[in-house]
Amino acid sequence: MKTLVATVLIALFMIGCKPGESLSKQETILQITDKIENQDYTFIPTTALPSSGKSINLGYSYSLNVSKDTVNSYLPYFGRAYVAPMSTDEGGIKFVSADFEYTLTKGKKDMWEAVIKPQDNAKRYTLTLQIGNTGYATLTVQDTNRQTISFYGKIE
Question: InterPro entries, per this entry (predicted)?
Answer without folding.
Answer: DUF4251
